[in-house]
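Subject: complex prediction, re-run

Hi both,

The earlier run crashed halfway through, so I resubmitted it with identical inputs.
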Amino acid sequence: MVLADVFASVFEQPADSFSDASNQDSVSGWTSLRHVALLVGVENAYGIRFSNAEMASMRSMGDIRSALVRKGVHVS
Amino acid sequence: MTALTFNSYLFLFAFLPVVIAGFYLLTRVTNKQAPALIWLIAASLFFYAVQGPGYLVILVASVLGNFAILWLLLRQDPNSAGRKWTLALGIVANLALLATYKYTGFLAENINTLLGTQLKPLPLVYPIGLSFYTFIQIGYLIDAHAGQAKRPTFLKYLLFGTFFPYVTAGPLVRSGEVVDPMDTPARERTGGQQLAVGATMFAMGLFKKAVLADSVAPYATSLFQFAGAHENIGVANAWIGMLAYTLQLYFDFSGYTDMALGIGLMLGFKLPVNFDTPLRATSIIDFWRRWHITMTRWFTDYIYTPIAANFMRRSVRKSWSTALRVLAVLCLPAIVTFLLVGLWHGSGWGFVIWGGIQGAAMAVNLIWREVKLRMPSILGWLLMMLVFVSSLTFFRAPTVDTALVVLRSMWFLGPAGNTPGQFFGTAKVFGAVTVVPSLLWVFGLMLIAVFFRNTQQMLGNGFGGISEKAAIWQPSMRWAVGTALVAATALVFAGGASPFLYYRF
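This time it finished cleanly. Structure:
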């Protein structure tokens, strides 16, 4: 499962426009509501659950990737 | 109240120059990082100690306690239950400290009203900045728990928790914004350009506070004095007074923030931006992206996101109807978040009502945005102003009753009042200028707040000055003379007993 695909579907932009540096400031349309949709989308895509503290502290694609890696998920 | 605030002569002519000179000396005579770091910590502790008796004990207890919890937390396995419980303990301990000093009086008052008891509030004085350094440190704990903040050394954490540019009124920094830069030697983060840009930013902030904010303050004070005495106000006076208060709050707090960021820059830290011309916002969502940005960010990260995500998960799992989904995922998290934002500002029903109005307006705005409705920018701006300025009555008034007197007058529900000339007759701008030019002054300040480039835009959004294309600042004679004039004017008006409005929160 490619993480950028989840981003692409939430933000309606091509997957290759995202990198680990993508965050709320650099991606247009990354509103607080979309942010929530993104996190829940990632959870569903990988079949995992983030804790409240994890959700509060993830602000970029890199943050989300490292949180997934810590959960033992293989992310490409 | 306090003698050592950013706009006091003691701070401007003694404390700040000595701290900066000592810091530059220490970073230039030795390659070791510890002496300069200890210097800044000592300066910060001194700065806080003189804010009030006993305050330092609370700050030091809070910072040492948080460091101990952080140390304990990071020793434990990332997915262990022990780590989760340590985080919970940390959050509860922080909130308990805050609640003891900030909310017991309010709680006692409400219990007394409800049950007819005679509870007395604890005889405690609220230490300036407690709300700020408590929330900054809770943020660190949560980020560290989630693996998004690294383990600091004791000295670095001590500076993070006590740093004088933000300890009294923010910005609400994230761990990485203060701790990470310290990986780079201080000498590389400081120099002529940081001093020049930082000092310019500081001068602009002081001007906003001492000249702009303090000049319209008497209008707001007059309005609320008359309202408190239940005198007739009238629509025009209510709006003039409330616009004056809105401008006072904006220039006071954004001025304070410019000064904080300017000091930070001179000492090698780029603290996060707090204001982005908020009074130009064209919706309430837009407004909260531009006003007190680091606070909105804190509440979005740590309160709104978890609540909204939990509801969103549930709505998917249980296939809720659209109406229920709109209510639970869009409206409720925004309303709950802003009620807490209100309570964070102070313990009183006025703050709760003010927060509730923001939350309700956000909910309406969110729905509006989701169904992709549009309105002309000018209408959006007008609506934002009407809602925000009206809501500030509850934020400013000492009691809900007084707020309602002003609000009724604003919305044509109060008795007619005198002409503005008679009404504001005693509230003269700069203590001298008469009323008619004063009304123009409020209008003029509004134009500045809406149309002028903001400080960051002048100095570069990353406030790097000449290295940034967006910046109009140049190390030129024109800028030097301009900044000197701004600073000189500000210094003439500074130094009086005018504490920053956000010192209360």
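Chain B has three domains: 9-183, 190-275+399-505, 280-396.

- K.
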